[in-house]
Amino acid sequence: MKTNKITFKYAIVALSVIVFASCKNNEPAQKAAMGPMPLAVQTVKKQDAVVNQEYSANLEGQQNVEIRPKVSGFIQKIYVDEGQPVKKGQLLFKLETQSLSQDAAAAKARINVAQVEVDRLIPLVERNIISKVQLETAKANLAQAKSNYSSIVANINYANITSPVNGVIGSLPYREGSLVSSAIVEPLTTVSDTKMVRAYFSMNEKELLDFSRTFAGQTMKEKINKIPEVSLVLIDNSIYEYKGKIETISGLINQRTGSTECRAVFPNPEGVLRSGGSGIIRIPFVQNEVILIPQIAVFDRQGKYHLFVVGEGNKVTEKVVEVVGTKDLDYIISSGIEEGESVVVEGVSKLVDGQEISPKSL
């Protein structure tokens, strides 16, 4: 009985081995029956494309005016708050003027004394009792007293600090009671005129050369006039609703940074843009006869861009390509592939070099 159990056990094991081997032998046949994977391909052709070149930009108001006191004094009153819009001539700060007022009263008294002296000497000169020199000296003292008084009054007026432009109030680093003077490091505030906002960005030497070749014109101003309107990408990746215009491109290249400064201007009627902000300038360039490949067809490996090209026998070959930019959902390819070749545009993550596929056109 025991012998029969052992024999039955070995029979089961042998049967399992036979079944497993049969399955293994049938795998190639199953794959062959399935055939090559059907994958979409696209024939490469050259075409014209509008390409957006992007540059990081810093935003500033059309006018950024630092507000500094002309006289020393304690801040008695602050009439505005951070981010508040103000008008030209609007009162922003008032400095304490008690000591100046006392000086003004004393200066006014000296004017009165000097005036009395002049009035006293005039009839004496007319009767030749004293010389005209004494009278002229008294008149000079009166003029000096009036000048001192006017200077003190001007300083009192300087204690009322107003906005020189329309704009928006920046930060307020000082509080009421702070002692300030014309020598302070930080200004009392900055008033930014943000109805028009300037975006400052840089081009490197190669980009500037490409720009000069792309846009026709004898002078830089003529070339700038040929640039179409530009877009601004905000910090949340949204596109600012108003288009801008390139205003200036410096003719000099900074030898230290190898770049040149550029400026674009954007309207800001709703005050969305703020001075001190940042964004990305997009300049549209028309490129002729370029190769566009869907980004889904390109994959990155060890810092290089790769794609699969369909060759003889519908077998794919992996190639390294040079990407120089993007247009919508396509990559702009400068080298590594030729016009007329067929590129696999789906399922590239499942492919290996030399694998046969069943191409299907888009």
How helical, in percent, are the residues?
A: 25-40%
CATH level 4 superfamily of the largest domain: RNA polymerase II/Efflux pump adaptor protein, barrel-sandwich hybrid domain
Task: Give the count of structural domains.
Answer: 3
Average pLDDT over all residues? 84
How is this structure best described in words?
With about 350 residues, the protein is of the alpha+beta class. The protein has three domains: about 35-50 and about 290-360, conserved putative lor/sdh protein from methanococcus maripaludis s2 fold (Beta Barrel), CATH 2.40.420; about 55-60 and about 190-285, Efflux pump adaptor protein, beta barrel domain (Elongation Factor Tu (Ef-tu), domain 3, Beta Barrel), CATH 2.40.30; about 65-190, OB fold (Dihydrolipoamide Acetyltransferase, E2P) (Beta Barrel), CATH 2.40.50. Helix content is about 30%, strand content about 40%. It has five helices and 19 strands. The strands form two sheets. It has a 15-stranded mixed beta sheet that branches. Strand 15 and strand 16 (about 315-325) form a beta hairpin. The protein is rod-shaped, with a radius of gyration of 41 Å. Mean pLDDT is about 85; it is low at about 1-15, about 15-25 and about 25-30.
